[in-house]
């Protein structure tokens, strides 16, 4: 199994910055692509950013130019650097990992989430 732990959430005023880190432990060979998702009450969880094993990245349009996603494969960590935060960035941020192709690893995993609150 893979365990994912998020850290770095908190409360900040609009225009401020926060950095979220996801640390993977356990069977980290079963971690390939990773991503950050966000959920607010009453809405579905949505993808914010993703990064594959080779470092290719995805950012949803609303965070482009403000958020940066990186990973350190040697340390099994993924970081989401968030700048110029807006109130609409508020939510619980979850880390997710997807397995590599092949029969040995078949499960995706989620962290427990970390709250990000941006006040206006």
| Largest beta-sheet characterization | 7 strands, mixed
Structural class determined from secondary elements:
mainly beta
- Distance N to C terminus: 40 Å
What integer is the average pLDDT? 97
Number of strands: 11
- Element order, helices and strands? EEEEEEEEEEE
* Percent of sequence in beta strands: over 45%
Unreliable stretches (pLDDT < 50, length at least 5) are none
Helix content: under 10%
Number of helices, counting only DSSP H or I runs of 4 residues or more: 0
Q: If you compute it from the alpha carbons, what radius of gyration comes out, rounded to the nearest whole angstrom?
A: 14 Å
The geometry reads as elongated
List keywords for this structure.
0% helix, 11 strands, mainly beta, 4-stranded antiparallel β-sheet, 51% strand, 120 residues, 7-stranded mixed β-sheet
């Amino acid at each position: 199994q893979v365990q994912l732990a998020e850290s770095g959430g908190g409360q900040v005023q609009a225009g401020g910055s926060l950095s979220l880190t996801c640390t993977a432990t356990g069977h980290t060979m079963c971690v390939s692509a990773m991503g950050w998702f966000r959920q607010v009450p009453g809405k579905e969880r949505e993808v914010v950013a993703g990064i594959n094993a080779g470092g290719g990245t995805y950012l949803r349009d609303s965070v482009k130019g403000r958020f940066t996603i990186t990973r350190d494969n040697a340390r099994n960590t993924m970081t989401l650097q968030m700048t110029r935060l807006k109130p609409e960035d508020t939510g619980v941020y979850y880390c997710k990992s997807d397995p590599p192709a092949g029969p040995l690893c078949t499960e995706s995993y989620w962290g427990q989430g970390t709250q990000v609150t941006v006040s206006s």
